[in-house]
Structure formats: C-alpha cells, structure tokens
Amino acid sequence: FVPGNTDPPELASYENAAVKPVHRRVLPLGPYAVGGAGGSLPTPFNDLFRVTEEELERLLQRLTPTPQILVVHNPPRGVLDKVGGVRPVGSAAVRRYIEERQPAMSVHGHIHEDRGLDMLGGTIVVNPGPLKKGFYAEALLDRTKITVRLRRV
Question: Residue 106 contacts by C-beta under 8 Å, 6 or more apart in sequence?
Fold first, then answer.
C-alpha cells in the first residue's frame, strides 16, 4: 500500500507480517516487483500528506529496480483523473514515469469519482474507487499477463 493525502505521512513506515508499504521502495510480489509513492499533489482540502510534482518525480526516479506494478496515490495526468467528470488533476510526473518505464500495471486512488480501467501506452491503469463505498479491484497476476476486474463488496 501507499498512504494517501488524508493519511499521516508516518503511515508510510507502518509494517507488519501482512502489511507492507511500498512508498519509496520496491518489493517482490510473485514474479513481479511492486513499488510506489504516497501522498498527493496539493488539493483545496486540509491534507496531511502532500508532495509536489518535483518531489514525486524524484521519489519515482529513485525506485529500483523499476517496478512492473506501480502504486501511486496520484493518477497520471489525463488518465482516470477527472474531478467532477471534467477537470484533470493528475500528476505530470506520474504520467512521464509510466510513459518512460511502461510498468505492466499502475494502480491509483485519490480521485474517488473517476473509478475505472484505462491504458497508457502498454500500461494498464487502475483506479479501483473508494473502498469506503465498497469498491476495489481484483488483479490476477499471471507470469505472462495481468487481468484486472473492478469489483464492489
């Protein structure tokens, strides 16, 4: 997991046997490497965990090895990032990273109202929607492909 904008930054270091944060690091998950970055670009709300585009870009560039599954709270600019169905508020840094590195899958939250699946180049982009409303995504990780389905409890 990565913490979001309403989570305290300290959550990024919380870990136990069942929960592993991937904020600023890459961990193995079967045949894949998973890495990411938490926090969000500034919003009009009273966020606890904010990052700038520059900070986010630095965090992503430091992920080694390049993750095949990217988990970033902010979505890429122009993909599943519309507030009110109109205004894009995604990150240019996240978009550049995906375009350059082409992970197999990229998972994002933050924009609760733009739940969906999309593609950015060869990358599957996933916004599962807010869990507090019962939304989630199921990803089947095969050695040769990833299949994603949006679900609701």
Answer: 69, 70, 71, 72, 76, 94, 98, 120, 123, 124, 125, 126
